[in-house]
Amino acid sequence: MKKNRYFFLFRLYIKKIRIFIGKYQKKHQLCISFFVYSFATQENNSFIMIERTIEQKLNALLKLQSVDSKLDELRRVRGDLPNEVQDLEDEIIGLQTRINNFGNDVSAFESEVESRRQRKKDADKLIQKYKDQQNNVKNNREFEALSKEIEAEELEMQLCDKKIKDAQEKIMRKQDEISKVDKNLSERQKDLDAKKEELNNILAESENDEQKLLKDREKQTKNIEDRLLRSYDKIRDNSINGLAVVMVKRDACGGCFNIVPPQRQADIREKKKIIVCEHCGRILAGVEEVAIVEEKKTRGRKAGTTLSKKEETTSSFTDIAAAELG
Predict the structure, then answer these.
(1) Is the Cα torsion angle 265, 271, 272, 278 positive or negative in sign?
(2) CA–CA dist 76, 83 (Å, integer)
């Protein structure tokens, strides 16, 4: 009995709920539909906003790539001049350092010569002193001792003469090396002045364009988020030709020239997400419709040739008919 009672109450409760819903359904149907429509519209607008944002990012990257390519072209005009100037400057610094080291060696040898000469003078004085003492000796042992001292000082004088001669020869060799390095330094300095003048002329010609491009680059980087800009710079550094953002041309990547599948090209055209090349990792910004234009041209040419053939045949038939009538 209790189960039947509960079941009856439950059915009664469901019936009341249905009556309530039916009573207010018409009244609130418009509000519900408007809410659903507004939610769907808001969702679609957010989707369009995301799509436009991706497209704007790709366009900004493409413009940045164009500016960087122009900067690379300007720097390519300079060639290896900046590197050559830097190498010459480093070489000149190395030659100057070498000359300074040779100068320090010459100073050391000269001080050695001066000290040996002073030692030679001291030895001469001692020899003279020992000779004077030999005149006042009392026995042979003192005389022999003084004689040995005199011999030692004479040997010291001979050694000093030898050291002085060696040092002077070293000084002469160092001076010869200094003159050679100095000559080489003057030649390198002339080369550096000529290279610098040539580089300054090139820089003066392209300075305004470079400054303008650098300002444009700074302006374009503000429209790109930092994470995407870091990826762009990384791809540019790893690529040989400096291209990080390319277009799909003739069904191939504009950077590595590998074939891009048609389905991937369709995704690139939609620009719903940033797509990179599977082979080189470059960002694919869009698809250039070059092949279609060429096909249209070829079709036009074929149509023109067929028309010309038809005209030739019709003209030949008319000529034959006129000849028969005549």
Answers:
(1) positive
(2) 12
